[in-house]
Design a protein that fits this description.
single chain, about 160 residues, mainly alpha, three-stranded mixed sheet, 3 strands, globular
Length: about 160
Amino acid sequence: MDNWIGDCKILVKEIIDKSFPLLRNQKIFTYESKHINFSADTISLFFVSRIRISPRMRNANVSELKGLLTHELGHIEFYKKRNFVQNQWANFRCSLFKKYRELEEKNVDRLTIEKGYGKDLKANRIFREKFKDKSFEKLKGFYLTPEEIGEYMRKVKRK
């Protein structure tokens, strides 16, 4: 029996225990969805969150998955740190204005690197580049490139 999503859930718990103390009491549902055009996405509502993962990630190694899942947990942490009105405002801006979506995604990338998962995030981005489909072309400018991830990792290391 295939337990890939079970392994993803274990990985989410391990990442939370190691690097996201704010999320330890957060209920997070993690599941695979064929109805997703990109690697993963996250939605949070009060004390419940969900991470949907694309089946295309089944071929990713542990490092590539860790980079993806840590990025998604970063979104949940940002959500937890903001109040309801701030979250609604952020969602509104990100849905209407590309520059705010880019700012949000790149800030989550930076948080992922600051938490020590830069190599995993970089591995995930390199893995994702293999799928040069419409969603990749549409979304690639929102995230740090592998080169920018490397630069930020060096900057964080110098601090």
